[in-house]
Specification:
A hairpin with a 2-residue loop joins β5 (266-274) and β6 (277-282). The protein has twelve helices and 13 strands. With 379 residues, the chain is α+β, with helices and mostly antiparallel strands. The chain has three domains: 2-69, no CATH class; 87-233, no CATH class; 235-377, no CATH class. The chain is elongated. Bound molecules: zinc ion (3 copies).
């Protein structure tokens, strides 16, 4: 129906209406109650009125549907454009600082006014939308970030009542998601964890907003608000990490996630050893796959060289970020980037401490680490 109305409007001519099937019928148009005006001595049927009376109800319905469809198309293209620009801006920011979810930004009253109050026939261009996002984002983030960090801190305090914001960075501050199987999330990984991102939007315009936003619900990434409701403090994961830190001769009270990445301890799960097959991993995998198992760290004596020869380097091209441009890299590709920046490093994997100020681990990566778990069997 709306498509028919669109055709009639685009190809408008008088014949479009008078020849429409609702008008051009065997019945006499006057049967529909049209006026028959008298001009001079001649009687002319008021054909416009006749046509209108025949079509009024259906035409009004068609035009209403047409207008709703055109409005929704305009709104959806604006949401689409803003989301694309938002992802681009987000990818250029420092992932160590929590970034609001799309729904937290798109429901800002100023952004909603841009989307909903600009006349629907006016096209919003990339540069206007980007400048508006860049103008509004700082104040959105200033309000959103401290509130959400406080929510995460309150969850940490369920296990450690005296914790402060700086404790969120500790390697022993381990969280789990109650909605999926992820048992280890460190700050600020939870801000990029899928289950914490909702699909729906709630706003002052929610009735219309939900209708228009529906097509975006089925994208890979949920585009609603960030919520902490599925997060819990993982005490046993924290105890496992504490043992790893102590095995590295570090202090669990002060060792941060970055410190542990730099120490990069090698761990063997003793519980999973079967028929001479020994399971090794770097620390980020311990609470994920071997929580509550017994393990040993870094003490493999004469076999260390043979064990390390079996290690599988991570090919995650988003494992680390450049601290200068925030672009993501794999460990190998960052060596090249470091060279371009004039950073002096030979082999990144053995030189991490030296260049730590030039990189950081990407909290947006699923499991940031230098290698994947592997099995070693003595030859
Ligand atoms: Zn989850
Ligand atoms: Zn295990
Ligand atoms: Zn860079």
């Amino acid at each position: 129906m709306a498509a028919e109305a669109e055709t009639m409007i685009r190809d408008y001519s008088w014949d479009t209406f008078t020849n429409h099937e609702l008008v051009s019928q065997p019945r006499n148009l006057t049967d529909y109650g049209a006026n028959t005006p008298v001009i001079g001595d001649d009687v002319y049927p008021d054909s416009m009125t006749l046509a209108w009376n025949c079509m009024e109800n259906k035409l009004v319905q068609m035009l209403s549907e047409y207008l709703v469809r055109k409005r929704n198309e305009a709104l959806q293209s604006r949401y689409h454009l803003l989301l694309r620009l938002l992802f681009q801006i987000e990818s250029e920011t420092d992932s160590r600082d929590p970034f609001p979810a799309p729904g937290d930004i798109l429901t800002d009253p100023r952004i909603e006014a841009l989307i909903w109050d600009t006349p629907y026939d006016k096209r919003l261009g990339d540069s206007l939308c980007k400048s508006k996002l860049l103008e509004y984002l700082p104040s959105i983030i200033d309000e959103w970030r401290p509130a959400k960090i406080q929510e995460v801190l309150e969850i940490l305090r369920t296990g450690r009542p005296s914790a402060t914001v700086s404790d969120l960075h500790l390697a022993t501050s381990v969280f789990a998601c109650s909605s999926c199987t992820v048992k280890a999330l460190h700050y600020p990984q939870m801000f990029y964890h899928r289950c914490c991102h909702q699909r729906s939007l709630t706003s002052s315009r929610s009735d219309h907003c939900l209708d228009v936003y529906v097509p975006f619900w089925f994208t890979k990434r949920p585009l609603g608000h960030w919520m902490s409701s599925t997060l819990v403090y993982n005490d046993s994961g924290s105890q496992d990490i504490k043992k790893v830190i102590e095995a590295c001769n570090l202090d669990p009270e002060t060792t941060t996630v970055d410190d542990l990445h730099l120490a990069n301890p090698l761990i063997e799960c003793l519980s999973c050893k079967t028929h001479g097959r020994r399971h090794f991993m770097r620390w980020p995998y311990l609470p994920i796959q071997h929580m509550g198992h017994s393990f040993q760290v870094n003490s493999f004596d004469t076999e260390m060289t043979q064990i390390l020869a079996r290690e599988i380097p991570s090919h995650d091209r988003k494992a680390i970020c450049c601290a200068h441009c925030h672009e993501t890299f794999g460990l190998k590709t960052f060596e090249l980037h470091a060279g371009v920046l004039g950073i002096d490093c030979d082999t990144l994997t053995t030189d991490l401490l030296h260049i730590r100020k030039h990189l950081y681990w990407n909290s947006r990566a699923i499991v940031p680490g230098s290698s994947r778990p592997f099995v070693y069997v003595k030859a």
